[in-house]
């Protein structure tokens, strides 16, 4: 009976973790460029706590990490000169104190020096790895679908759009940024387009995530009931053995 309790507890732990992930998805349903996440689980065989012959293994539930869905989110028109959205697979490249980071959040602005930066103040990098500087005296800013930033006839730079060979190498790093965990260089993307005056919304589908919350709650309650029943059977067995003795 202890085996059932341990297996049930392992499942409850993964359900608790899954609940946190789904709740975070819902909380970020309106976050620009956010990508929905799911918990990955697997079963792992282990030696039973108690068994008659010791030959039958017990399978516990283990979480193996978070899977991230990088599919395109819907585009929202804003009209902002520095609002940029990527149509296609790719990421903006920005410079932080910890090194280069990557994002789909195109809510850019300029700092007092005229450098194109993220909402957190990280400089947006061009294709050569340099910063993009805007001079307000030169007139309105135009960003082409190829990422070229222009002010009239003057080219200010070209917004870099890159992607890794393996999307699973990207890990969350705060401020809606990703870091590259693999020892590889992200490659320039040539088949993606940049849209000025638009932002990519989150690809979270709230109805689906709320349905998941209900399913998780029901699964947790079902496991808890199974564990209670197992405990009751164990208690009843002990009481009966005590009466016989």
In a nutshell, what does this entry contain?
This protein is an alpha+beta fold. It has 2 helices and 17 strands. It is elongated.
- Roughly what fraction of the amino acids lie in strands? 25-35%
Separation of the first and last Cα atoms: 21 Å
Query: Based on CA inertia axes, which overall geometry fits?
Result: elongated
**DSSP strand count:** 17
Discrete helix count: 2
Q: Helices and strands: which structural class?
A: alpha+beta
Radius of gyration, whole Å: 26 Å
Give a written overview of the molecule:
It is a single chain. With 245 residues, the chain is of the alpha+beta class. It folds into two domains: 111 residues; 126 residues, no CATH class. The strands form seven sheets. It has a four-stranded antiparallel beta sheet, with no helix packed on it. The protein has a three-stranded antiparallel beta sheet with strand order 9-10-11, with no helix packed on it. β10 and β11 form a beta hairpin. α1 packs antiparallel against α2. The longest helix is centred in the C-terminal third of the chain and has 39 residues. The model has no long low-confidence stretch (mean pLDDT 89).
């Amino acid at each position: 009976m202890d085996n059932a309790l341990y297996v049930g507890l392992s499942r409850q732990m993964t359900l608790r973790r899954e609940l946190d992930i789904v709740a975070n998805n819902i909380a970020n349903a309106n976050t620009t460029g956010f990508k929905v996440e799911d918990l990955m689980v697997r079963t792992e065989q282990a030696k039973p706590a108690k068994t008659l012959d010791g030959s039958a293994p017990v399978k516990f539930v283990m979480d193996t990490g978070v899977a991230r869905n990088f599919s395109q989110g819907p585009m929202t028109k804003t009209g902002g000169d520095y609002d940029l959205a990527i149509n296609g697979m790719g990421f903006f490249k920005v410079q932080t104190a910890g090194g280069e980071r990557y994002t789909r959040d195109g809510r850019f602005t300029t700092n007092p020096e005229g450098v194109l930066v993220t909402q957190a103040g990280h400089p947006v990098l061009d294709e050569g790895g340099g910063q993009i500087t805007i001079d307000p005296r030169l007139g309105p800013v135009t960003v082409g679908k190829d990422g070229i930033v222009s002010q009239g006839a003057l080219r200010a730079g070209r917004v870099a759009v890159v992607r890794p060979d393996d999307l699973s190498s990207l890990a969350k790093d705060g401020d809606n940024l990703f870091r590259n965990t693999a020892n590889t260089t992200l490659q320039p993307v040539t088949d993606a387009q940049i849209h000025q005056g638009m932002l990519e919304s989150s690809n979270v589908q709230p109805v689906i995530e709320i349905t998941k919350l209900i399913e998780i709650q029901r699964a947790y309650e079902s496991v808890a009931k199974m564990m209670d029943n197992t405990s009751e059977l164990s208690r009843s067995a002990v009481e009966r053995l005590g009466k016989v003795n």
